[in-house]
Backbone:
């Protein structure tokens, strides 16, 4: 019998998370559809996830990670089974791009990782490592961070728990607060991008299909 996931509580009121700063000059990684510019926020409403979308009007969202591998884990690898050989079809990655983005100003984020979880009285498996069924409840925590004026939130990637993941709020952070690092872009449909995917995914028992 599968154990039930712990319940995600309502965010504390008043909401007083541990607040961290992402310094200007920090480089974060984004894996995204080529329908979007590298610095363009997803306006919604399609594709609701663990921490987006919320608000009326809905707050645009941009997901990033501290490493290329973390960004990959949170996107293309998100729904690929773990522990058994599995394919990554070309249709999954062909229209997807990796880019490094440099912050042009400091950003204030709610830290939903490390002792930041204890600050707000939850464990990771109540907030950043829950089932998809619980996303309507976990989104309330991002909304609470937005309501106190922060630029975004950070947590440890569920699928690469050595990497921090971030979501920035599109009504607080502008596109020109982010700059693409020259030479950082990889289109996975290109030979260089495909080669990087294959090299990264092979030890994970993920077979990146060329066609």
Residues:
């Amino acid at each position: 019998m599968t154990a039930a996931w712990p319940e995600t509580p309502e965010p504390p009121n008043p909401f007083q998370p541990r607040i961290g700063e992402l310094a200007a000059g920090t480089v974060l990684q984004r894996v995204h559809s080529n329908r979007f510019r590298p610095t363009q926020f997803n306006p919604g409403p399609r594709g609701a996830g663990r921490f987006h979308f919320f608000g009326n009007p809905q707050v645009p969202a941009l997901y990033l990670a501290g490493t290329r591998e973390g960004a990959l884990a949170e996107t293309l690898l998100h729904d690929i089974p773990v522990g058994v050989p599995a394919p990554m079809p070309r249709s999954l990655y062909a229209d997807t791009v990796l880019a490094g983005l440099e912050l042009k100003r400091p950003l204030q984020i709610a830290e939903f990782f490390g002792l930041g979880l204890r600050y707000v009285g939850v464990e990771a498996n109540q907030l950043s490592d829950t089932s998809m069924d619980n996303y309507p409840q976990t989104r309330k925590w991002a909304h609470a961070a937005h309501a106190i004026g922060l630029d975004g939130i950070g947590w440890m990637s569920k699928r690469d728990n050595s990497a921090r993941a971030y979501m920035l709020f599109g009504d607080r952070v502008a596109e020109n607060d982010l700059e693409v690092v020259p030479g950082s872009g990889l289109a996975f449909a290109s030979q260089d991008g495909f080669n990087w995917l294959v090299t990264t995914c092979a030890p994970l028992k993920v077979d990146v299909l060329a066609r």
Remarks:
- Helices lie at 68-73, 90-93, 115-119, 135-147, 191-201.
- The radius of gyration is 17 Å.
- The CA atoms of residues 100 and 183 lie 9 Å apart.
- Residues 24-82+96-183 form one domain.
